[in-house]
Design goal:
The structure is a homodimer. Chain A is α/β, with parallel strands linked by helices. The first copy, chain A, is built from 15 helices and 11 strands. In chain A, the strands form 3 sheets. The first copy, chain A, has a 6-stranded parallel sheet, with helices on both faces. A two-stranded antiparallel sheet of chain A has the order 7-8. The relative contact order of chain A is 0.11. Chains A, B: It comes from Megasphaera hominis.
Chain lengths: ~400, ~400
């Protein structure tokens, strides 16, 4: 069991009708606000008008950057950083899901340096992130957990790279507004992808053979059961508050560092998925959903089976008296059923137009031309095999 | 489901050999440090010497206040506040368990005002707590969770009052050092009382009929299973790191506000126990252990049984096909067995020298001469009956 530092000073306003606190919270950090968002969905839902009214009422000066794309691009970050410098922005307000939040964090860091923001993420440079403008956010999608972590993932289409980095607490949002009812209008497809993403975040940390804190394993099982219980409910009744609330709070706690509890193992499916998104610009949660059951299948052997047993019994209620390998196989099947049948996500690369073309390159990059030191260490050849299983 | 604000900006260094960071953390807040502690146990264990060495090495000026008692008294708080003013203290370092931490928080607040610190707690005054000196701590006992909450309970022996108040984030520690190996020397009795205290904190919040966040119920069940699994292990093997680590981290998360998740119900056993401690100066966890099963028994009826069923099945693995009332009774029995047989705590007031003498007064005070609005609202007569059941 490794020692660790827990430090998550994000203030979260959870629930409905909390935006009345937005003005007072922004004011703590200055008067010139850059609001960042994606497409027009926040305008259609009325959220945009509510937020603008709060900002005006607080007497703050508002600037805007819209059009932040899913899998946000480095050019957008560059543009945002430039606006911050030119307009002397004091504080950023991200309104959106993980993409908008991630881009905004790197804009906030980029605003404080003279170099290209890509230098923060470029593996050959990894420029230090010493400071960043304060970021607040209004979350509109339960998925990435960016509202409570210090990380952000950015795509560079020119180099086909999608790279992330966690710099905590510098890039942690100061304040996050989480209103489950804001997610009533999230489409079935995005709800499904978001749920797959939350589940994957927990599984990346749960599938681990390090000696561990049992209390965190219990919590992780609770988080996974929460996704399994409420994602179908949110799909069937998009305005079910209980379902949206549980998914939203689970998304934050799946990745804010608490459940890591000192574990030092690297993640597996996320680095593989980032290559898919970088080359094919697919939705992150969908890529994870296709990869996860194949990764589970590939990693299963006598040395790892105990974790599958714990998972299958405690999360899916599989009969603990069965043979361990049988429990493991049933648990992989249960995950597949959840992702493809219950959530209705596509189950193969072929269905979403991905073929073998870039397997070699993507696999090489996913393991950084070495070994991905996750649950089961994976080399380029292993990752290629997992990709093959996804066809 | 109520809206809520989650805001726990406590930085926690968890694990062994983290005290090397103590100097740098104290320095952020100033140079004149008042270290507070209880008896001589930290001198016998060597912890005192380690901490003093770190403080000296950081070039800080050290002042001390020792002798903070279990169930800390208002006179000690007054003395500490006076020292802070006279010595122009910048930052407080509490080294101990919940009693030392609680006293130190109120010293930190008392240092910033001209009035008597009891005015903060006196129900007829409740003086505002607008600021406090920064508090850091080195925890030596897994129990109260004071290391991650903004509360503190103080006894006034003159008035037989034991009163607490939560003022978050003003009274939150800035940094807490949690080293499970420091608790190896905690006695069996204190380990048992601390475990009963953690369990009670969770039960006070779990036994609740408000519509709730399922993910938090799962986590609470995990916390309770953690105490039930590891308390006996810590009793049998005081230097079992895994057991001490799980108990220690569970103690923090049982009461830092996360599991409350917007629930507005007041606690029940704690207000009753505070009266016992105020009149008889008993160990807090022991008082809770005697009260809890009787409170469970008293509150059980057709309107509340569903929560006992959830508890019994998910925490103690009681057969879910049984009659609900039978599951409830078995779950009360399971809690009793855990507290009295497994932990070895005394099971009656009579055994610890408490008789009917003050039942009326204590009951009247516990409900503040009205109704205690907990899991089942309790009036003075209800509380007297629960006290009777404890004889």
């Amino acid at each position: 069991m490794h020692s660790f530092v827990y430090n998550v000073p994000v203030k979260v306003y959870f629930g409905q009708n909390q935006l009345g606190h937005l003005g007072e919270e922004l004011k703590r950090y200055g008067t010139r606000v850059l609001m960042t968002y994606g497409g027009g969905s926040i305008k259609r839902s009325g959220l945009y008008d509510t937020i603008v009214a709060e900002i005006k009422q607080a007497g703050l000066e508002l600037f805007e950057l819209s059009g932040i794309e899913p899998n946000p691009r480095i050019d957008t970050v560059r543009e945002g950083a430039k606006i911050c410098k030119e307009k002397k922005i004091d504080v950023l307000l991200a309104v959106g899901g993980g993409s908008t939040l991630d881009a905004t964090k790197w804009i906030a860091a980029g605003a404080c340096v003279d170099h290209d923001p890509w230098d923060f993420l470029d593996r050959s440079k990894l420029a230090p992130v010493e400071k960043a403008l304060p970021v607040l956010d209004v979350l509109t999608l339960a998925a990435t957990g960016s509202e409570m972590d210090g990380g952000g993932v950015i795509t560079n289409p020119e180099t086909h790279e999608k790279l992330g980095r966690i710099v905590s607490p510098t890039l942690l949002p100061k304040v996050s507004f989480l209103d489950p009812s804001v997610t009533y209008t999230v489409s079935k497809y995005q709800t499904a992808c978001g749920s797959a993403d939350i589940l994957s975040h927990v599984m990346e940390q749960y599938f681990n053979l390090e000696p561990d804190l049992y209390m965190l394993d219990c919590f992780m099982e609770g988080l996974m059961k929460t996704v399994i219980k409420y994602a179908p409910m949110a799909l069937a009744q998009p305005d079910n508050y209980e379902a949206r609330a549980n998914l939203m709070w689970a998304s934050s706690w799946a990745i804010n560092g608490f459940i890591t509890g000192g574990k030092q193992q690297a993640w597996s499916c996320h680095p593989m998925e980032h290559e898919l998104s970088a080359f094919y610009d697919i939705t992150h949660g969908l890529g994870l959903a296709i990869l996860t059951p194949r990764w589970m299948e590939y990693c299963l052997d006598e040395t790892t089976v105990s974790k599958y047993v714990q998972f299958g019994v405690n999360v899916f209620g599989i009969d603990s008296s069965l043979d361990p390998m049988e429990i493991a196989r049933q648990s992989i099947k249960a995950v597949s059923n959840f992702l493809y049948d219950t959530l209705g996500l596509k189950r193969t690369f072929t269905e979403i137009g991905i073929d073998r073309t870039h397997f070699q390159t993507m696999a090489k990059r996913a393991c950084n031309n070495g070994t991905l030191p996750g649950f089961k260490p994976l080399k380029q050849s292993d990752i290629e095999k997992i990709f093959e299983m996804c066809l």
